């Protein structure tokens, strides 16, 4: 399967009379965007739009999702198949992205947990989304709406706005084009007989409402482990419905730009044969864990893989799936590298994961989520800081009178991302 | 029904006690884990992950765990998981948070959603 990704670089974002992209500036007609949200979502009673640019003294909180605007220019299907577009296999043809921009959805879905994006200061260094020109969509629910219904309404609204902006790229000429191509099993064996056969096992957050991920619109907790072409994610085959654990959840933007997939493509045909993308889940019911990890290992064996990278999403419960996958895949004779983050205490000295095994002897970490920092006050807050004391990593002393916040980095969106889509590094 | 739910979440009691075997206790999150640990050592099998949800154990006061309805031989996998969960629990410091009723309600809802997912798989 072959996908041509065209990147149109966005250097600025502004509200304007007409939505368009001109000379690298994304102009947004706010009335059209509000109408788009309200006309399609009766559970939302009011929408507020704002803009947050890199370097500004702006704090966005509570953040629910971050989404990159894209459009399908050629080939089967459309962006977000089974969610916004019809169900059709994506990942081939031509897709354009408004690189450097994002739709950020925000709203008080639950009274804790959702994250912080600071556009400047030390906090900005911890979140990759501070580098983007963000259109922030704050959705207010109709009265009496249940939390999971509110989450769904905000989720769909974010995707609609991202597709609306992505459509502005359809007739443009990309600043950069990259071609991603994978082989069939037989082609790969013939073309790269001497290269190790490597796959990516991605564990999708699927613990329950407000902790969900959707694949082609299907709730991942109701799926068996399966395989995809790695290019399918670039058209939005996987989307986030996850509201919890800001630092190590995968916003939809991360699914679309998953660095494990992109890095494996960089090495494809050179040092490895990137065979496929294996999806599995992280359910709370232990028999589901058993079944899903059995299937991941079975697929690895069936595909005659030499090695896999395994990434998890979240803390605690997923650690058990991570170790089950690692142990069972290694037992099939397939080498594993696990990608996780750590809750190692503020001094970093505690055991990092809630499970462990000797088979997990190759590990990449996204950082220690318990690291404690102070975020300076910002001139402007988009959303509300009413909940800062009660989001993950916050406490009753978190929010100071001057607007500064003392907090564990687990409160920052994307700070310790477990696909490596973050800024922390030992380098 | 081959399972029971050990919980300190009043919402789980209210919503599920008519359809499931719910054992509700007015005890802490850690005491729920202790109770489940003792049950696992006594031969009950763990059926849902005790650290379900990405809400950290020092944030939410609520926890619901599914275990087998009947005792059998001690299950080493169950004991391994619950013991590791207790080690993980103890490394989160008490933040001394005083929750508002609406936040407490959100925590109850999250825990209820999580255990409902396990119930959906179990029946």
From TrEMBL, chain A:
**Which positions bear Pyruvic acid (Cys)?**
243
Q: Which Pfam families match?
A: Gly_reductase
Top-rank taxon, per record: Bacteria
Any one Gene Ontology MF annotation carried by this entry is: oxidoreductase activity, acting on X-H and Y-H to form an X-Y bond, with a disulfide as acceptor
Q: Which InterPro entries match?
A: Gly/sarc/bet_Rdtase_B_asu/bsu (IPR016585), Gly_reductase_pB_sua/b (IPR015417)
Active site per UniProt: 243
Alphabetical UniProt keywords: Pyruvate, Schiff base
Tell me what this protein is called.
Answer: Glycine reductase
**Classification of source organism:** Bacteria, Bacillati, Bacillota, Clostridia, Lachnospirales
UniProtKB/TrEMBL annotation, chain B:
Task: Please indicate which superkingdom the organism of origin belongs to.
Answer: Bacteria
**What is the designated name of this protein?**
GrdX protein
């Amino acid at each position: 399967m072959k996908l041509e990704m065209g990147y149109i670089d966005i250097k600025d974002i502004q509200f304007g009379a007409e939505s368009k992209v001109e000379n690298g500036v994304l102009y947004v007609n706010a009335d059209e965007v509000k109408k788009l949200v309200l006309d399609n979502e009766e559970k939302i009673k009011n929408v507020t739009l704002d803009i947050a640019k890199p370097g500004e003294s702006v704090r966005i909180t509570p953040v629910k999702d971050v989404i990159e605007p894209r459009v399908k220019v050629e080939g089967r299907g459309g962006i977000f198949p089974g969610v916004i577009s019809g169900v059709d296999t994506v990942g081939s043809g031509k897709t354009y992205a408004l690189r450097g921009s994002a739709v950020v959805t925000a709203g008080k879905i639950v009274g804790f947990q959702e994250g912080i994006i600071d556009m400047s200061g030390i906090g900005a260094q911890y979140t990759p989304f501070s580098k983007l020109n963000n259109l922030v969509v704050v959705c207010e629910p109709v009265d009496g709406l249940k939390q999971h219904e509110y989450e769904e309404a905000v989720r769909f609204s974010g995707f609609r706005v991202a597709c609306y902006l992505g459509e502005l790229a359809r007739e443009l000429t990309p600043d950069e084009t990259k071609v991603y191509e994978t082989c069939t099993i037989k082609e790969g064996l013939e073309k790269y007989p001497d290269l190790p056969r490597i796959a990516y096992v991605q564990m999708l957050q699927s613990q329950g409402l407000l902790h969900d991920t959707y694949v082609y619109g299907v709730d991942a907790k109701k799926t068996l482990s399966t395989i995809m072409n790695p290019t399918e994610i670039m058209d939005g085959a996987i989307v986030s419905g996850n509201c919890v654990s800001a630092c190590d959840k995968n916003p939809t933007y991360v699914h679309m730009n998953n660095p494990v997939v992109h890095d494996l493509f960089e090495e494809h045909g050179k040092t490895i044969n990137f065979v496929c993308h294996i999806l599995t889940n992280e359910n709370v019911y232990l028999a589901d864990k058993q079944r899903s990890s059995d299937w991941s290992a079975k697929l690895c064996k069936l595909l005659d893989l030499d090695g896999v990278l395994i990434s998890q999403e979240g803390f605690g419960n997923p650690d058990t799936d991570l170790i089950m996958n690692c142990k069972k895949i290694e037992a099939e004779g397939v080498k594993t590298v696990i990608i996780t983050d750590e809750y190692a205490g503020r001094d970093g000295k505690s055991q990092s994961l809630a499970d462990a095994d000797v088979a997990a002897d190759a590990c990449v970490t996204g950082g220690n989520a318990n690291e404690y920092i102070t975020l300076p006050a910002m001139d402007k807050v988009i959303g509300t800081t009413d909940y800062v004391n009660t989001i993950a990593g916050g406490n009753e002393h978190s929010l100071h009178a001057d607007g500064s916040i003392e907090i564990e980095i687990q409160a920052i969106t994307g700070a310790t991302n477990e696909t490596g889509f973050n800024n922390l590094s030992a380098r | 029904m081959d399972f029971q739910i050990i919980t300190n979440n009043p919402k789980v009691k209210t919503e599920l006690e008519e359809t499931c075997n719910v054992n509700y206790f007015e005890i802490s999150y850690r005491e729920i884990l202790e109770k489940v640990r003792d049950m696992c050592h006594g031969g009950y099998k763990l059926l849902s992950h005790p650290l379900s949800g990405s809400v950290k154990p020092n944030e939410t006061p609520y926890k619901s765990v599914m275990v087998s309805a009947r005792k059998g031989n001690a299950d080493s996998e169950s004991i391994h998981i619950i013991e590791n969960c207790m080690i993980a629990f103890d490394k989160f410091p008490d933040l001394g948070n005083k929750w508002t009723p609406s936040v407490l309600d959100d925590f109850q809802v999250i825990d209820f959603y999580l255990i409902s997912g396990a119930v959906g798989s179990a029946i």
